């Protein structure tokens, strides 16, 4: 076990965990930030996507020991009032079906728009292709990203 001071959603959290614990499980099991989902556990589906220093990052394969002072943002911290443009566009387009993958989808989309405010269809497809949705909401996801980019 080791103690880590983690900067998450603008607050510092102290946790005592095994250094090899994936940050996903620190968020979910130790800090009750359960908006970040477990899908595959092998960095293949995108359900666990968070931001690390603003970059979309899969939390299931990153040990807590690798985080250091880097700033983490989870879906709970993406906006203070749920009014992030991507979240608003998700509501407008009624994107989710079962909803399980959507936090990861939104976090990936938000990071895309931070780095590329006017993405082309190809940019969106290339960035979002690693986030799997078993309900097949891809058409609405793409439309919502385009709305959020306006
Ligand atoms: Fe991390 Fe699937 S749970 S990529």
TrEMBL record:
<keyword id="KW-0411">Iron-sulfur</keyword>
<dbReference type="InterPro" id="IPR051452">
    <property type="entry name" value="Diverse_Oxidoreductases"/>
</dbReference>
<dbReference type="InterPro" id="IPR002888">
    <property type="entry name" value="2Fe-2S-bd"/>
</dbReference>
<keyword id="KW-0560">Oxidoreductase</keyword>
<protein>
    <submittedName>
        <fullName>(2Fe-2S)-binding protein</fullName>
    </submittedName>
</protein>
<dbReference type="InterPro" id="IPR012675">
    <property type="entry name" value="Beta-grasp_dom_sf"/>
</dbReference>
<dbReference type="GO" id="GO:0051537">
    <property type="term" value="F:2 iron, 2 sulfur cluster binding"/>
</dbReference>
<keyword id="KW-0408">Iron</keyword>
<dbReference type="InterPro" id="IPR001041">
    <property type="entry name" value="2Fe-2S_ferredoxin-type"/>
</dbReference>
<dbReference type="InterPro" id="IPR036010">
    <property type="entry name" value="2Fe-2S_ferredoxin-like_sf"/>
</dbReference>
<dbReference type="Pfam" id="PF01799">
    <property type="entry name" value="Fer2_2"/>
</dbReference>
<keyword id="KW-0001">2Fe-2S</keyword>
<dbReference type="Pfam" id="PF00111">
    <property type="entry name" value="Fer2"/>
</dbReference>
<dbReference type="InterPro" id="IPR036884">
    <property type="entry name" value="2Fe-2S-bd_dom_sf"/>
</dbReference>
<feature type="domain" description="2Fe-2S ferredoxin-type">
    <location>
        <begin position="2"/>
        <end position="78"/>
    </location>
</feature>
<keyword id="KW-0479">Metal-binding</keyword>
<dbReference type="GO" id="GO:0016491">
    <property type="term" value="F:oxidoreductase activity"/>
</dbReference>
<dbReference type="GO" id="GO:0046872">
    <property type="term" value="F:metal ion binding"/>
</dbReference>
